Structures are given as structure tokens and as C-alpha cells.
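Researcher: Please translate sequence to C-alpha cells.
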Amino acid sequence: MNSFFSALLEHSFLQMAVAAALLASIGCGVIGTYVVVKRITFIAGGIAHTVLGGIGAALYLGFNPLHGALLAAVLAALLIGWVRLHWRTQEDALIGALWAIGMAIGVLFIAKTPGYQADLMGYLFGNILLVPAESLWFMASLDAVLLAVLVAYHQQFLAVVFDEEYSRLQGVPVTFFYLLLLVLVAITVVLLIQIVGLILVLALLTLPAAVASQYAHSIGRIMIIATTLGMILSVSGLALSYQPDLPPGPVIILLAGGAYLLSTLFTRATQRRDAIRATQTTSLAPNDG
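Model: Translation complete:
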């Protein structure tokens, strides 16, 4: 890792990679918390895999692939949200269809893009080392939008996440804020695909928040822990992959998965120990009868 930090001071592409990792971690921690608490991981996965269709179409038409990814993600989020609200029995089938169709369309468009030999693996598994400066500005803008919306409507999102029916009775426009939440998930997916790609995006979106939820019980604290953990995992994965010349995305995900497994084992062991102590304390307590 020492060689990585030495190179970090010399090479601008590594500096931009670290900046991209930090920017993506903000959306990862904040929106990932809502995804985990609301239990909409499958919906987030459907949105993520639809993005390849937008990337392929944008490349074919000569536009910025990130803009195509954002458009496809938002449209998929709105469609999935509408079906969940009005045709819930078909939700899983629709997500599965969008998942497959989006990737198929993307592969076909990329294959037929004239004069452009696209690196499909780069989109599927990410390539944080090739993030250009203009993408950093795009990511920073998306982060700003996420944070502005969440700060403005934090209470409404909490109401929708924890109790839709009660919120509806209290006059909260649940449908609007649920769809808005899915749009924010779509924006976060676009942030993360540059780091770990479409295949692994779901893990980075959910694992830091899943770990954080084992140690904190308020939404705000989970977000802070998840964001911090996402930053640590992303930069550590980038550093560990540098010397052996490994793809950073999968290394980041392996670290995240390892952190989740270790954290789960630790919390389970702690809970079991506390339960044993409580049982022993109860059995040793004097009997008033």
C-alpha cells in the first residue's frame, strides 16, 4: 500500500480515482441506507441492470454514456415504481424483464456502435482508474442533487420508509415521495457504476448500509457510518489492487463483503453472549417467593 500512496502524490489519474471513490461513497451511504431499511434491494438491482441499455444507446447515438445511463435509470425507476403502486402482483416479473432487456439492448447497441470498440467489461465491472475529470464534475453534481433533495424532504422520506399507510392518512403524498426515492436510487446507481460497474453495483449500494445498521438504529447515524465505511472500503480496495495490478472494482466488493460477514459474525456472537449473561443473571437472582 505504500507504493500506492507514493504514486498517489505523483499521478493525477490516481487522484481522480480517489476523488471518484469518495464522491460515490456519499450516495452509497445515504441512499443505500434507505434501500436497506425499506428493503427495496431487488428494485435497485432492476434499475442498475437496465442502465446498460441507456449506455449502449447513448454511445450509438454519439452522446455521453453517463447521460444515457441516467436517463435509462430514471425511466426504469419510474416504471418499476408505478407498477409496484398499481399492479403489484407483476412487480417481480417486470423487474426481471427490465433486468434482462436492458442488458440485451445495451450489448446490441455497443456491438453496432460505428467506429467504436467499446470495452463491455469496463461497463459491467467498472474501471475507476479511467474516470475523466468531466465525470467527476458530473458525479459531484449528482451528489449535490441527492443531498439537496434529502435535506429538503427528510421527514417525508422517513414517513414513506417506515409507514406508508399512516403517512397517507396524515396527508403525506406517499406516491410522489416513493417515486422520488426510486429516482434518487437511480441517480446513485449511475454514481456507483463508474466505481464497480453494473454487475457489482448492488453490493456497494447495500453492504456498507447493512453493516452500519448493525451498530446504529437511527437513519442519520446509519447514513454517517455507511458513508464513512464506503469511503474506507473504496480507497482501501483501490490501494490494495494497485501493486498486484488487479481490477479495483472486484477488490472493493470483496472488502465490503468481508466487512459484512465479519460484522455479522461479531454482532451475532455479542448478542449470544449477552443472552447467556442475562439468563445467568436471572437464574442467580433471589427468589422473592
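Researcher: Any highlights?
Model: The first helix runs from residue 2 to 8.
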